[in-house]
Amino acid sequence: MVDIEKIEKRTVQSFYDDGLFEIALGFFLLLLGGYFFAQASAPKGSPMNSVLSVLFVLVIVSAGFLVNRILRFLKRRITYPRTGYVTFKKKEPNPKRRAAAMITGGLIGASMGALYGLSPSIRTLMPALNGILFAVAILLAANKVGVFRFYILAGASAVIGFGITAAGIGDIKGVSLYYGLFGAAIILSGLAALIVDLRRSPRPAADASEGPDAH
Amino acid sequence: MPTDVSALTEIDRLIHEPARLALTAILSVVESADFLYLQRETGLTKGNLSSHLAKLEEAGYVTIEKTYRGRIPLTLIRLTDAGLAAYKAYRARFKKFLEKT
């Protein structure tokens, strides 16, 4: 008997087979790490520090845009010629889910902000908190799409976050180190997946992507 | 039980065939997919895939568009609204049947 749910899940999973999503996400996190490192290096109250604080949203949005473009480009050049072209459905906007996400994000942001305003000893928990947040997000994604290596990445995120906090590296420097290390870990995971996928799915003959003439 | 059997007899036989069921299941979660992608994911031969797609196209469940990506010919397949509705109805009916048995 055909397992419909398994086929649907497998189709969604196929998007992650090549590891390019992880490589792109890893570069996004490295960019974030670079941003936090620059912020940690700039003296407090300096014009540079103020400019960086103001530019935070712009950095996130432009890095996200850039990484998305790079991901599409790499998919077109590396993956689709080997595995076939596929376009996934864009999720229909769900106002309730969007509102819930915004409230959750706001609560997390407010909690982080409140924590950040408290004593320096509590601030050192920032890398661990980032590690936990990413671990939860990746666990949710792993459960949804069923990619096993995402569970390992979730564990790595928590370990890196707690490790940096335990080492007492500091708040912003610690956060920048967390993004740097976790970004590198995701890139390595993506590269390993890409190598496996390239070996498993060689590029077919030139006419293979063409359907039969009957159509 | 008669009610269980009636749920099964009303099932869409065009979609019920395993290869076509796999194809519609894949196409239900994507916007469009090309011939190579469907061939790889289903493991069907070119001839088989072509034949099943032709049947789905005849029923108005899929559209098949011949296009080019650069110089490479590309056959893009999409599930139509009627195809998606038929697949959803099949899925719901079959699930109901399995729950009853």
Describe this structure in words.
- The complex is a heterodimer of chains A (215) and B (101).
- Chain A has 215 residues and is mostly helical.
- Chain A has 9 helices and 1 strand, in the order H-H-H-H-E-H-H-H-H-H.
- Chain A is globular and about 60 Å long.
- The two termini of chain A are 29 Å apart.
- Chain B is 64% helix and 21% strand.
- Chain B contains 6 helices and 3 strands, in the order H-H-H-E-H-H-E-E-H.
- Chain B starts with a helix and ends with a helix.
- The mean pLDDT of chain B is 88.
- Chain A binds chain B through residues 2, 4, 7-8, 10-12, 14, 81, 83-90, 201, 204, 206-212, 214-215, and chain B through 18, 21-22, 25-26, 28-41, 46-47, 50, 53-54, 57, 64, 66, 69, 72-76, 91, 94.
- Strand 1 of chain A pairs antiparallel with strand 1 of chain B.
According to CATH, what is the class of chain B?
Mainly Alpha
Oligomeric state, counting identical vs distinct chains? heterodimer
Largest interface: A-B, 28 and 35 residues
Shape of chain A: globular
CATH architectural label of chain B? Orthogonal Bundle
Separation of the first and last Cα atoms of chain A:
29 Å
Structural class of chain B: alpha+beta
Looking at CATH, which topology of chain B would you report?
Arc Repressor Mutant, subunit A
Which properties best describe this structure?
heterodimer; A: 215 residues; mainly alpha; 77% helix; B: 101 residues; alpha+beta; Arc Repressor Mutant, subunit A; 3 strands
Provide a compact summary of the structure.
The complex is a heterodimer of chains A (about 220) and B (about 100). Chain A is mainly alpha-helical. Chain A is about 75% helix and about 0% strand.
